[in-house]
Amino acid sequence: MGEDTKAQKLRLDRWMSDLPAPIKDMPLIFLAIPGSHDSMTYGITRSSAVAPDAEPILNRLYPLFRGTILRWTITQASDTWHQLLIGIRYFDLRLATKADEENSFYFTHGLYGEEITKALAQIKQFVDTHPGEVVILDCQHFYDFTRQDHHRLRGYLLDLFGPRLVPRQIDLEAITLNSLNRLKMQIIVVYRNETVSSTGEFWQPQMMPSPWPQQDGISGLLSYLRNVERPPSTGFVHQAVLTPTPTFIVLRWISSLREKCAVPVLRDVLPELAQFSPGRPTSKRNSVSRSPVNVVIADFVDMNDAIFPRTIIDLNMKLLRHTEYSSSG
Ligand SMILES: *[C@@H]1O[C@H](CO)[C@@H](O)[C@H](O)[C@H]1NC(C)=O
């Protein structure tokens, strides 16, 4: 099949429901799923205030170098709805409270993004109108959160998503797109704080490890991605992102994270990721085999007509080759 026909055939807004039937019976943690890194930074604007996760020096630099700081803080251009439409099914969420607002939560990345209600309502609307699509919300970091804040956020998420939530279970391999579809469950919340760990509705951090590569160069990132090990029966997040250090930024002051990090990843790392496969991690890896992918995240996921999510979604077709069903696909 030519590239053009393939691109036309792939409906990014409902790629999960369109997957060949045998793949929908495979564990979700063994499928390839595109996600966005620091998903909600599109909501950061020139009027955003410095947030509690910022380096202290940002308070002094921000009034002077607002434009530059925004260029190095924003990691996504597309809003939540558009990310969903281009196939993104995993959102990396960093949350903070605001001192003068008792009842709100905000997205954050050094600067405050939007209050969370609008984006989460869009996710709810998306799953309501796209049965068969499953969205993972990874609550990664919390800033200025008290125990009460965690409980309040928990209550909010339970109210909003209720029966759509995929409860955690011991055997994650039992969860497939088909099994979720039958139960009309479409939202997985990973909650990386123990305060609400008694809540069976949310997944615990160890069910979807997301180690940080902490690399500012392509060769370091490539070698990280080739060598990272994943546990056998959990989900996993491969972070295909470069993290600029302060020195890196100072030397590229007039540029942006998009140009100096996201563009090189697309050019030099995505072709390598296209060689990865989803599937079950095995213990007998050798020097050329790599851990299979599950969730893969990147910055600026909409670039080049969404080539990133398209490439990751396509990896799932490799699963057909490894099954007895390959002729029916
Ligand atoms: C979880 O949240 C509580 C309350 O804000 C905090 O004290 C604790 O350090 C957090 N745990 C982790 C692992 O960050």
Are there runs of 5+ residues with pLDDT below 50, and where?
324-329
Report the sheet with the most strands, covering strand number, pairing sense and barrel closure. 8 strands, mixed
Write down the overall mean pLDDT: 93
Query: Superfamily at the CATH H level?
Result: Phosphatidylinositol (PI) phosphodiesterase
- Strand segment tally: 8
Please give the radius of gyration in angstroms.
19 Å
Q: How many separate structural domains?
A: 1
Annotated CATH topology: TIM Barrel
Bound molecules: 2-acetamido-2-deoxy-beta-D-glucopyranose
Residue share in helix: 25-40%
- Structure class: alpha/beta
Beta content comes to 5-15%
CATH architecture identity: Alpha-Beta Barrel
Q: What is the CATH top level name?
A: Alpha Beta
The termini sit apart by 14 Å
In DSSP terms, counting alpha (H) and pi (I) runs of 4 or more, how many helices? Answer: 13
Oligomer: single chain
* SSE string: HHEHHHEEEHEHHEHEHHEHH
The geometry reads as globular
What does this structure look like?
This protein has one domain: Alpha-Beta Barrel (TIM Barrel). Helices cover 34% and strands 15% of the residues. Strands 1, 2, 3, 4, 5, 6, 7 and 8 form an eight-stranded mixed sheet that branches. β2 and β3 form a beta hairpin. The radius of gyration is 19 Å and the shape is globular. Bound molecules: 2-acetamido-2-deoxy-beta-D-glucopyranose. 2-acetamido-2-deoxy-beta-D-glucopyranose binds next to α7. GO terms for molecular function: phosphoric diester hydrolase activity.
